[in-house]
Structure formats: C-alpha cells, structure tokens
Design goal:
The chain is mostly helical and 563 residues long. It contains 19 helices and two strands. Strands 1-2 form a two-stranded antiparallel sheet. The longest helix has 42 residues.
C-alpha cells in the first residue's frame, strides 16, 4: 500500500505538462501579435506621413521600409519551405477547410495582375531614371519576387498544421501578414491621394483626369518634378494605377490565408477528422441550377459594366452631364441592391425548411470569414449612415437627393441580409446530413421496404442499421440518397441564389475599385460635411467596403459548392 501511494504522485506530471504547453502556446501567440502590432504601427506612421506634403517623410522612405519588409518576409518563407521539405514530420496534419481551391485560384489571379502592375511601375520609374532614387525601381522588382515566392508558399502550405519551431513560425507568419497589410495600406493611401488630387484639379477649372500625379509622390526624393512627357511613360503611369485594385485584393487574400496558417500552428486534429472536408472533388458551375440566377446575374453584370463606362465618360467630360451620369448610376445600384436584398431574404426563408444539421465543429477559416464579413461591412454602413444624415438634415428635394437616400438605405439592408444568408450557409452541414436524434429508441425488425412518408409518422420505429449498412456512415449515406429528391429543389434554389449574389457582388466590386466615386461627384455630402471631413470618411471606410465585395464573392462560391 505504501509503495502504491509512493508511485501515485509520480504519474501525475503529464497533466501539468499539457497545461504548461497550452499556456506557452498562448504566450507564443502573444509574442507574435506584439511583433506584428509594432511593425504595423511603424509602417502605418511612415505611410500616412508620406502622404502629406507638409510632413518631412518622403515616399522613398516608405519604399525603403516596404522593400526591407518584403525581403525579410521572402527569406523567412524560403526558410519555411526548405525546413518542411527536409523534415517530413514537421507537418503531421493538414486542415481540409483552410485554403480552398477557389481562394488559392483567386490569389494566383490577383498575383499575376500584381506582377503586371510591377512591370508597369518599373517602366514608369525607369522613364526618368536620372531624377529618381534607385529605391523606386528596386521596390517593384522586390515586390515581384515577394509575390512569386509568397504565392507558391500559400499554394502548397496553406493547409499546414506545422509542429516544429512553433514560436519562430508564428512570428514569421505574423510578420509576413503585417507586410501584406503594409502593402495594402500603401496602395490605398496612394489611390486616395490621387483621387483627392483629381478632385482638386476638376474643381479648379482644369480638365478632369482620373489620376493626376502628386508632385511629392511622383517626384524625386527631394520633391522635384520628374517630367512624364513621352507616350510610353503615360501608358505605364495609367496602367499601373488601373491595376492597383488587384494588388489591394492580393494583399488582403494573402493576409487571410496567413492568419489561418497562424491559427493552425501546433494544432492537433483528430484522426477521424483528419483530411475531412465538405469540398467536393469535382465542381461543375451551373450544375443542378434552374439557370435563372446565373442568367439574371450575368444580365446585371453586363448592364453594370455599361453603366460604369457611361458614368466614367460623362463624369470625366463636361460638368453638365454629371447629374445625368449620377441618376443612371444610382438607378442601377438601387435595382441591383433591391434584387440582392430580396434574393438574400428568400435564401434565409429556404433555410427554414432545410433539415441539414448545423456544423458546430472548430473551424478557424469559417470563424475568420464571418469576422471579416461583419467587420468589412462596417465601412459601407458608416458611409451610408453619413449619407442618410446629410440627405435628411440637408433636405434636398430634388431627384438626386431621393436616389441618394434610397441607395444608402438599400445598401444597409443588402449588407445585413446578405451577411445573414452567407453566415447561415457556412454553418450548414453537407447535403443529406440531418440533425441527430439522441433519444433512445427501439429498432423495428422485419421491415423489408421502408416508406419514408409512413416512417416519418412513426418516430419510435427508425430503420435498423442492418437494413441500410453495417456502419453509421453507410446509414447516413443511404438516408442522404433516399432524401435527395425531396430536397433537390432547395439545393437548386440555393445554388441559383449563390451564383446571382456572386455575380452582383463582382460588378459592385468593379465599380468602386476602378474609380467610380459618386460620393464626390454628388455634392450633397461634400456641401454638408465639408470636403476635408467627407474625404476622410470615404477614404477610410470605402476600402473596407471594396474588400467586403470580394470577400463576399469568395464566401458565396463556397456556399455554392456546399449547397
């Protein structure tokens, strides 16, 4: 007895060891977050300071910081790839939910466009090399290398749950994520500066151009002007600014994937769920749909492109045609947002009749998707509420004021109901999986043919596992096959709704991302708040609204696959 009592305390250390490991896991995450916050604040300070001419921070300082960050992030990425290749046991698990093929495909597409932008930017700065700092040419070249390395890294490693050098990996992933956020911030600030300069030029009796170079940012490191008189120089200049939206989306896509990898560092997955996911091996677009959603979505997409071109041409032309362009722009958006709101509501109603079980398993990717949808929508909420106050309190009684008010109200409703539909869709289980009934029941023996309509009226007599298969998985598959015709129309409707909302979100992303700014063309808010305050509101909130549209596209594609 005394020996057993003596041996008892010796077997207890494993529990505290696991607890201390969990505590240090939180400590490692805290260390990496503190590193990211400090680096991001430094980058934010330099980028925002370089946007103002009165601050003695030149754009060369910003380029030097971004180039250094991209080089360090690229070196760490190469180190990670070499380490995982040399150590096969470094990644014992892979998260099936992380890095779906459509997200990685979008990353590759935006990465290719970013590489084209870097070529244009290199050609632009090389056109007047004699008055430029060398860092301005080195920066796009370094970014091209960074994009290539990072895209390959995320393509092959987005699902990794690495289990070696945990703290170093967390810090490296957070630093790379911060580098992408700094690139995104620099692109957004540069775009805002050019939009502001364009507005100032159009209101000083000069011709309105979409992008007017700011002398402090397009000039040399000492603020001197660099002439861009040749045709090739102007092509490079216009080209790389029109490609900025793709660079912005690339940085945000990469940031979301890096965050999921950071959450998966040291994560343990059960053997039963290892490699399990809802993504089918083969996805066929327009399969099992009524074709109403895709056709209507394509029609709105084409009409939206025509409206966007008309808006850009008329707003960039004579001032007398600006109001006509705004009426066309607001009318299309009101129709599109109204249809999207009704369709999202119909999708939520269909889910009231859906018998699929809710998926409550731990899923960092889904948690991040929901947080980004809710957080990014706040940007458009803010702009809409500011517009509502300006229209109602300012009391403009013309047609444009009414369209502006209707547009703001529908924008709020559309974001709200679309978020409800997407979030509920992401939490649904795969088709055919119904909620489990845990109440004890006695099996009914002797059934050779099961009439489902009759069985649903007999809750005490479910079909026995021996009839449908030797395992619970076989029973679920058989029930899914039998119930498929009953829920077939619901799945078709959900697929149509997903494709329709997807196409509408694409066109609503294209318009603001490529320069549509009715917030400034319509002078109601500018006159009410003043240009400085209204420009600050739009320049801060609109990038989140643009990101919301593209992130909604990614989420809706996943909803389409899971429906």
């Amino acid at each position: 007895m005394s020996e057993e009592l003596a041996q008892g305390p010796k077997e207890s250390p494993p529990a505290p060891r696991a607890g201390s490991r969990e505590v240090w896991k939180k400590g490692g995450r805290l260390l990496s977050v503190l590193l990211a916050v400090n680096v991001l604040l430094l980058a934010c300070t330099l980028i925002s300071g370089g946007a103002f001419n009165k601050v003695a921070v030149y754009d060369t300082d910003v380029f030097a910081l971004l180039t250094t960050m991209m080089l360090l992030a690229s070196l760490w990425t190469l180190f990670y790839l070499l380490r995982t290749v040399r150590c096969p046991n470094a990644v014992p698990y892979r998260d099936a939910h992380a890095g779906p093929i459509w997200l990685r495909g979008g990353l590759v597409l935006f990465g290719i466009c970013t590489l084209v932008m870097d070529v244009f930017k290199t050609g632009y700065y090389s056109s007047f090399f004699e008055c430029q700092s060398a860092i301005k040419i080195l920066h796009p070249l370094t970014q091209a290398v960074f994009v290539i390395v990072q895209t390959y890294f995320l393509w092959v490693s987005a699902k990794d749950c690495i289990h070696v050098h945990l703290d170093l990996t967390r810090c490296g992933l957070m630093f790379t994520l911060t580098t992408n956020l700094a690139i995104w911030m620099a692109a957004v600030v540069d775009e805002s500066v050019h939009q502001t300069h364009s507005y100032d030029s159009s209101h000083s009796n000069t011709s309105h151009h979409r992008f007017v170079p700011d002398p402090e940012r397009a000039g040399s490191s000492v603020g001197g002007d660099c002439p861009c008189n040749t045709a090739i120089c102007q092509i490079f200049q216009q080209g790389y600014f029109y490609l900025y939206p793709f660079n912005i989306e690339y940085s945000l896509f990469a940031s979301t994937m890096l965050y999921v990898m950071w959450k998966n560092v040291g994560r343990l997955l059960a053997s039963s769920t290892h490699g399990h996911g809802h993504t089918p091996s083969r996805v066929s677009l327009f399969r099992e749909t009524f074709f109403a959603g895709p056709i209507l979505g394509l029609m709105l997409f084409v009409v939206g492109l025509a409206v966007f071109i008309i808006y850009e041409v008329q707003v960039s032309g004579e001032g007398g045609r600006t109001q006509q362009a705004l009426v066309i722009y607001y009318s299309f958006n009101i129709i599109c947002l109204g249809l999207m709101t009704l369709v999202s509501l119909s999708g939520s109603v269909i889910y009231r009749f859906d018998r699929r079980a809710m998926d409550h398993h731990k899923n960092p990717t889904r948690t991040l998707d929901v947080a980004l949808l809710m957080g990014a929508a706040l940007g458009q909420y803010a702009i809409s509420y500011y517009s509502i106050v300006a229209v109602v309190v300012g009391a403009p009684r013309d047609l444009l004021g009414g369209l502006n008010l209707a547009h703001a109200l529908l924008m709020i409703a559309q974001h709200t109901f679309q978020n409800v539909f997407i979030i509920e869709s992401l939490h649904r289980g795969p088709p055919g999986v119904e909620p489990r009934d845990t109440t004890p029941k006695e099996p009914c023996h002797g059934l050779t043919f099961a009439n489902l309509d009759a069985l649903h009226t007999l809750p005490a007599c479910p079909s026995t596992p021996r009839l449908v298969g030797p395992s619970p998985e076989g029973a679920q598959e058989a029930v899914a096959v039998i119930l498929a015709p009953r829920g077939h129309w619901r799945r078709r409707c959900l697929k149509d709704i997903s494709l329709f909302l997807l196409l509408c979100n694409v066109i609503l992303w294209i318009m603001p991302a490529f320069g549509a700014r009715p917030h400034f063309s319509n002078t109601v808010e500018v006159d009410f708040y003043g240009y400085s305050l209204w420009a600050a509101i739009v320049n801060i909130c609109l990038p989140f609204g643009i990101f919301y549209r593209m992130h909604a596209v990614s989420s809706l594609l996943e909803v389409y696959v899971l429906s």
